[in-house]
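User: Predict the full complex structure for these chains.
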Amino acid sequence: MPPSPEEEPLYRKQIDRRLLARLLQFVRPHRSRLILAVVLLVLLSVAELAFPLLMKTGIDRYIKTGDTAGLLRISGLYLGLLVVVFVLRYTQTTTTQGLGQRVMYDLRMRLFRHVQRLSLPYFERNPVGRVMTRLTNDVEVLNELFTSGLVSIFGDILILVGIISIMLYLDVKLALACFLVLPPLVLATLFFRARVREAYTVIRIKVAGMNSFLQEMLSGISLVQLFRREKASAERFDRLNGEHRDAFLRSVRAYAVYFPVVELLETIAVALILAYGGSRVLDGTLTLGLLVAFIQYSERFFRPIRDLSQRYNILQGAMASSERVFELLDSQPRITTPRDGRTPDRVEGEIVFDGVRFGYKPDEPILPGLSFRIAPGESVALVGHTGAGKTTIASLLVRFYDVWDGSIRIDGVDIRKWDLHALRRRIAVVPQDVYLFSGSARRNIGLLDPSVSEERVLEASRAVGAAPFLEQLPAGLDTELRERGSLLSVGQRQLLSFARALAHDPSVLVLDEATSSVDTQTELAIRRALRVLIRGRTSLVIAHRLSTIRHVDRILVLHRGKLVEQGTHEELLGAGGIYAKLYQLEFKIQEGLGLDEVSAG
Amino acid sequence: MRRLASFLLPNLSVLGPALRRHRRRYLVGYLCLLATNGFSLAIPMVLRAGVNRLETGGTTPMIVYGAWLVGLAAVSGLFRYFMRMILIGASRRIEYELRNDFLGHLQRLSLSFFHRQKTGDLMARATNDLNAVRDVVGPGIMYGMNTVTIVTASLILMLRIDPWLTLFTLLPLPLLAFAVRRFASEMHHRSRAVQDQFGRLSSTIQENLAGIRVVQSYVQEPFEERSFEEEARTYRSLGYRLIRYRALFFATMGSLVGLLMLILLWAGGMRVIGDQIGLGDFVAFLGYLGMLTWPFIALGWVLSLVQRGEAAMARMREIRERTPEIRSPDRPQGDPPLCEGRIRFEDVRFRYGPDGPEVLRGIDETIEPGTTVAIVGRTGSGKSTLVSLVPRLFDPTGGAISIDGVDVRRRSLEELRRAVAVVPQDSFLFSDTLRANLVFGAPDAGEERIAEALRISRLEKDLATFPEGLETRIGERGITLSGGQRQRVALARALLADPRILILDDAFSNLDKITEAECTEALGSVRAQRTILLIAHRISTVRDADRILVLQKGIVAESGTHQELLEAAGIYSGMEREQRLAEEIERASVS
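Assistant: Here is the predicted structure of the two-chain assembly.
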């Protein structure tokens, strides 16, 4: 089944103050930078105001009077200002955008660190793609907020306050006349915002619909082709796509109406100043210069208002992302390391399962109460049918999950009292499916652990018999392997995974044997490697084939999560129970497949 | 012009036909753009007249100027409204067309393509990349047009006043063109570096999450964090690099008009002083230069849009221009028609990639019409691959498959696939109503046939429990079906398509034994009219087949009836014994 597209809130009604406050927390360490950015923005606006002033002075004082020296001087001044503005603009942009980069970096690191600590059930509930989106796209969206949003909003507000003060200072009545257009402007903006929000809600729904259709169609593409539904599905997509287009056209209309309306209102303000102020100029209660200045200020007055209404959309988009990001940050790891957890220097490796009850779903225990003990240095194999709960035991030992009831003890101490990292460092699990990181074979064996030396990697790969084929790779151990790379066969990947475990020299080894069949030669190599691996450490082999476990000290037979038989190979064969039957069954199959020589060898 | 476009923007230039299709929209939109600019231009003139009236006196009441201003703004706004609606609307329409094309093409591509391509990547191309292209044909063209128009208009107006001063003032512009080209290519490199690093960052996260078990059980978190930190830091510093450059670019564009004004102030001022032009001309010049401020800033923005769009279009073209590997032949052979269903495999060989292992290593078999042939074998023995070659989900890399005497590659894909229905392993269903899923391959199937298919696939009882019967939605926004139910729906879907050849690829694996037996029995009624290929693991499922093929490592290791194979005491009989024993053990341990 394809992963279902994310269920996410399609949009948020309001800008959530709490979310915003939390977001600002991430800016705090960089607040001096934020303040600098805002100050630069204000300085920039002020400096830009000076250009018309210089030009006016140049015309009135020097050009009109024919003063060439003065003209040169004022031109020099103009050039100086130009340079200042250039530098201001450059610094302002780099400061603001740099702020965004820094906050993004912090946020990403924080998220990544957090994710590392989350417990396995979280990853089972949340597909990789979804968690990844939080760290990639959602963080990028927030960057938009920090760079285009935050600084500009502060800047706009400051400029607005400044201009309003100047206008009021210059002439209260004229300023109030100009502000007459504010109520309709606010109304228009509110109306516009409601329309745009409406349109975007519909758009998001349509986009989600289109995406899930695409996703599903791509997942089921073979059926579409086999049942010749290409045309029908194209028609269906056409409908979704058309609805998406129409929803967008509605938002285009909202913008197409809003911008001209704002411009009209701005012009009305100018007309008011001209008509009312003009009549006062004629009365002699106002100077012409002041009127002209007012007209210029009114133009600058509207710009931040218009910008603010635009930024609102950015803010809104960021809300959805920040909510998802915080949701991730708020999800707590279920399995945590205890305070003052045990971190012994030496681990003997005694393992005790004491009445362990566990299941993945409530009311469906897989292990209804399992007890057994493995002595230090002993090697034990677990056998039983698929679904008997064998693999679960490995996951419980390293605390990927915690038991419901009972306890697991290592060296006599409940594993929940161990320091989580100390525990996991001493236990190596070789899982059924080998996960390969992209990177060299070396990186895959040593992982990124600097304490695993080059020699250890080599030694381990030699010991498990992985060295011969690894050295034959194009670049030897430095050959890049890929997750689904076809460079290594299933069996070879197994051996590499053995080498990985051996290189980390654990006290306890848990080997979950792969179910997939491999060729005879690899099979033999795996058996040999296994013998090397279990030597000198407590080992638990979860066996899917009995032929591999002849060399263990003891065999535990599980059925439906319960221990039903135990003993050595010979003892169990003699008892004639389940093990004997399983063995007989496998022996017969091998006979059928012509594998007798292998088990003999 | 066209040649120049394809030289400068090799990828975006493929949009030519789409733009031509909407040329009337672009033309009318452009006229609106001219009109709105024309009327806006008149506003400062009225304003000046108003101020002049105050200065020099006159009889016109001030309110008249105010009324003129408002009137002009209203008309200009009206045209601006139409401009946006038409030009941005056109881009939304082009986006819609491109997306439909993209999907249509995607559907024709062969399965091997989808095996190589990640779904997420394809979706990204259909959404993000397409949006970037749309931004070029929408706002990109609109603001581009605006800039060109205003620059041309002010250039003409300035030239009329004083060609010399114009030349002088605009002296830095060729420099600008040069700088833009340099900037553009450098910026392209830098943003490419950022994008690539973003990709690395994403795959680091992806790998870490996918391998979280290994990471946590080997306590690799600190080292993973360090390696991630490195990637994140590189991403940040590449980001800085891009930002610095971009800031330089935008600061330059933003200061450009200031520079022109500076030249005007000095050179123009000298000319006024030298009496070559009047002060009024100077002021007019100033106005025209002022008009250029916003267009120049917009130009920088448009250029970055175009650049992004160009990269996005390249990614779209990678898919759009890929020819499907498997397609109908130009002149399909329809004689003899596909009506019997005799399948012939002749030395069929197959490998998934050119360097992959051979999955099928020479299959030679004939399946007689109307027979049921079962295929058994271990995982990876090539069973599913073999049957997927019949409806041409893949083509063999060696040998040939023919149906009723004609190579499947020479038949029309339509005819072939109409004759073959598959019940796939994963029994994929679409999130739609149950009915829509059932009639997926036979949109006009009547109620009677649906009822028949439901009967054979034993879905009648389940249907009674569904809240809205056949109209019940299943999947994502509907009810969840059990694995067994899904398989039976998939079976009914295939039956409704009424195929000559029915392929059941491990289609009963999730059914309990009783239901399976019921299904197999019910299938008996349709067996005679169809050729059936049946992949299964349970001996009970295949024992009644007319013939059983045992596949091992890509070749047919044994074949015959159930009885014959048992007597041969080979792989098949081993499997049979294995299953019998397993059942025994199960019984023994339960009791």
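Chain A has 20 helices and twelve strands.
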